Amino acid sequence: xVAFSPLKITLLMCALFSSSVxxxxxxxxSDYWCxxxxxxxxxxxxxGIDLLRLAFKKRGIEVEYILKSWDQAVVDVESNRYHGLMSxxxxxxxxxxxxxxxxxxxxxxxxxxNNDWEFNEFSSLNNVRLGVIxxxxxxxLLDGYLAEHREDVHWVSGxxxxxxxxxxxxxxxxxxxxxxxxxLEYQLSLQNNPDSLITDYCLPVTNLYMAFAPEHPDxxxxxxxxxxxxxxxxxDGTYQKVMAKYQSFKSQLKQ
Length: 255
Prior knowledge:
Layout: H1 6-21, E1 25-30, H2 47-57, E2 62-67, H3 70-78, E3 84-88, E4 104-106, E5 108-112, E6 130-133, H4 140-148, E7 154-156, H5 161-170, E8 176-180, H6 181-189, E9 198-202, E10 206-212, H7 219-235, H8 238-247, H9 249-253
Parallel strand pairs: 1-2, 1-3, 6-7, 6-8
Antiparallel strand pairs: 3-10, 4-10, 5-8, 5-9
Helix pairs in contact: 2-7
């Protein structure tokens, strides 16, 4: 029989205890794009993050959610520094891996302060100072226009880039912005005196995904877990309950 000293027994117990309390963690990044993904570790982190946590909780996997500027978040996940990118279009990256199932969809529109300008075709953007977010994809047509007119567009970045765009519009530095309708409504709801913006033209509806790192060793397993569990959340009614929680998001802020 092998005899263990009290010190070895103590070290062995510590090792066993440590392995039992440190669970597996998936780390995802994004910028602030509420109500899809909001402030980390807040009461309402965004329904994309809520669904993500529920999906991996069923497998005993914790979720770490980090805010970054969008352009940096994309690069970090493409380079496998993090496991996933929350709220991505398929057009955002040719490297990232996407599940078959999207968790939501988005509609982006042009917003302006007055009626002096109307969107007719993309060439009509030549007549205004357009503000956009660095690294965002706005669909093939608008992305093509932005690539050709990079020097004429006002680019912003940061963890909450929409707030920067709204400040620039308030200071008369830009005339038009483009943003998801839900995100813009939520951001305006946080203002004591909300900016009065006019919706002009809206781009086609686009599916929204949780994207995964291309070559991380856990990617395929995480992607499969997420897709299977998201489908289960949809079928058992949990998805609908999460969405209902966020439908009253703005009214809760006003209380």
